[in-house]
Amino acid sequence: MEKIILCIDMDAFFASVEQQVNPRLRGKPIAVIGSGARTVVTTRSYEARKYGVKTGMNIYEARQLCPHLILVVGDNEKYTHTCIELEKVYRRFTPDVEVYSIDEAFLDITTTHHLFGGPVAIGAEIKKCIREVFGISCTVGIAPTFLLAKLASDLSKPDGLRWIRAMDAPSVLEDIPVKELWGIGSRTAENLASLGIRTCGELGRAPVSLLRNRFGIIGETLKDMGRGLCNRSLVTREEDPKSIGHSITLPRDIMDRKEIESTLLKLCEMVGRRARKYGFMGRTVSLTLRYPDFETFTRQNTLSCPTNDTRSIYDRSLEILNGVRLRDSVRLLGVCLSHLVQDRDQMYLLADVEKQRSLLRAMDAINDKYGEFKIMHASYLKQAEPPGVISPAWRTSGVKNIKVK
């Protein structure tokens, strides 16, 4: 049975939510930004896009292009709540739902579409429901593969609906630039162009040997992509993560050692807490530093035994930091725990170790009930930082479900 996949992509999601909540913003160019001093545009409305405002621009650049641009500080709680409610809408039509990101989802309706009048009827009904309940729009792409469903939604934005059938895929793909395909970045597109391959049609006809020589084993995958083929499966259950990490772009560059260590402790607590919550321990601790000129480097340290203890992660992070001679102030800090294994929650014979684990469980329980960092290590007692911008990779459940404020 040929698969039928829906890609549901919310249109300018953060900006649309803000315009719906505040009617005075409707029809106006707005940019959703973070609350920090170094914020950039995270999402812009379609009215702002007409002026060339792009995601990732700093405020100065955006206002140079659109002087009357309205800046709105993002509210992560609104976006995550809406994402969770949207998933409930999708599940009316199929149990096979993958929330791919905070503003995008894939639905496999292969075995259920006949119950609701067919793929187009489902797509139209989802669009109608989202419009009526949430007051925002989405674009729906329908196809036999995830790659084509994603392309169908990209080609139809905003507020569109398109079905690319298997028989129509060759003609649709023929003149589309390869960079439009999900998974082909600018560097890969440049490498393909050096081989004389610029469109999907050309990629699908390219000799496998040519692609293998340039790209190795993924050469065959690229050829399949040029034909609209992909073997990706729906991810309805989060796979075990390879790593758990947190990073923060600081409100200002810092050089003071105590400030760096304090921020580092917060990051280690966030990493350790997520690892404990989802039952993981890690053998390798990595520290990432970025200077004001954006030079970034990462160092790592491997432990003899896996851990999810905040103090152990912090001690290893400090060891790494002590081995680095800082040439400048620090713009960004990041901590990551990798080489993960399942935490079997075993009893420890050493009383000090068991006492520390009990203390962490108690801290986690209090913060789960009353909110993040309601109880914390004393050395992080400092003025609260502004909430960061939520990652598009946020998920409604699993390790990537990070509490926001």
UniProtKB/TrEMBL annotation:
<feature type="active site">
    <location>
        <position position="104"/>
    </location>
</feature>
<dbReference type="InterPro" id="IPR050116">
    <property type="entry name" value="DNA_polymerase-Y"/>
</dbReference>
<feature type="binding site">
    <location>
        <position position="103"/>
    </location>
    <ligand>
        <name>Mg(2+)</name>
    </ligand>
</feature>
<dbReference type="GO" id="GO:0009432">
    <property type="term" value="P:SOS response"/>
</dbReference>
<dbReference type="GO" id="GO:0006281">
    <property type="term" value="P:DNA repair"/>
</dbReference>
<dbReference type="Pfam" id="PF11798">
    <property type="entry name" value="IMS_HHH"/>
</dbReference>
<keyword id="KW-0460">Magnesium</keyword>
<comment type="subunit">
    <text>Monomer.</text>
</comment>
<dbReference type="InterPro" id="IPR043502">
    <property type="entry name" value="DNA/RNA_pol_sf"/>
</dbReference>
<keyword id="KW-0515">Mutator protein</keyword>
<keyword id="KW-0227">DNA damage</keyword>
<feature type="site" description="Substrate discrimination">
    <location>
        <position position="14"/>
    </location>
</feature>
<keyword id="KW-0238">DNA-binding</keyword>
<comment type="similarity">
    <text>Belongs to the DNA polymerase type-Y family.</text>
</comment>
<dbReference type="InterPro" id="IPR001126">
    <property type="entry name" value="UmuC"/>
</dbReference>
<feature type="domain" description="UmuC">
    <location>
        <begin position="5"/>
        <end position="185"/>
    </location>
</feature>
<keyword id="KW-0234">DNA repair</keyword>
<keyword id="KW-0235">DNA replication</keyword>
<dbReference type="Pfam" id="PF00817">
    <property type="entry name" value="IMS"/>
</dbReference>
<feature type="binding site">
    <location>
        <position position="9"/>
    </location>
    <ligand>
        <name>Mg(2+)</name>
    </ligand>
</feature>
<dbReference type="InterPro" id="IPR017961">
    <property type="entry name" value="DNA_pol_Y-fam_little_finger"/>
</dbReference>
<dbReference type="GO" id="GO:0005829">
    <property type="term" value="C:cytosol"/>
</dbReference>
<keyword id="KW-0548">Nucleotidyltransferase</keyword>
<keyword id="KW-0808">Transferase</keyword>
<dbReference type="InterPro" id="IPR024728">
    <property type="entry name" value="PolY_HhH_motif"/>
</dbReference>
<dbReference type="GO" id="GO:0042276">
    <property type="term" value="P:error-prone translesion synthesis"/>
</dbReference>
<keyword id="KW-0479">Metal-binding</keyword>
<dbReference type="GO" id="GO:0000287">
    <property type="term" value="F:magnesium ion binding"/>
</dbReference>
<dbReference type="InterPro" id="IPR036775">
    <property type="entry name" value="DNA_pol_Y-fam_lit_finger_sf"/>
</dbReference>
<dbReference type="GO" id="GO:0003887">
    <property type="term" value="F:DNA-directed DNA polymerase activity"/>
</dbReference>
<comment type="function">
    <text>Poorly processive, error-prone DNA polymerase involved in untargeted mutagenesis. Copies undamaged DNA at stalled replication forks, which arise in vivo from mismatched or misaligned primer ends. These misaligned primers can be extended by PolIV. Exhibits no 3'-5' exonuclease (proofreading) activity. May be involved in translesional synthesis, in conjunction with the beta clamp from PolIII.</text>
</comment>
<keyword id="KW-0963">Cytoplasm</keyword>
<dbReference type="InterPro" id="IPR043128">
    <property type="entry name" value="Rev_trsase/Diguanyl_cyclase"/>
</dbReference>
<dbReference type="Pfam" id="PF11799">
    <property type="entry name" value="IMS_C"/>
</dbReference>
<keyword id="KW-0239">DNA-directed DNA polymerase</keyword>
<dbReference type="GO" id="GO:0003684">
    <property type="term" value="F:damaged DNA binding"/>
</dbReference>
<dbReference type="GO" id="GO:0006261">
    <property type="term" value="P:DNA-templated DNA replication"/>
</dbReference>
<protein>
    <recommendedName>
        <fullName>DNA polymerase IV</fullName>
        <ecNumber>2.7.7.7</ecNumber>
    </recommendedName>
</protein>
<dbReference type="InterPro" id="IPR022880">
    <property type="entry name" value="DNApol_IV"/>
</dbReference>
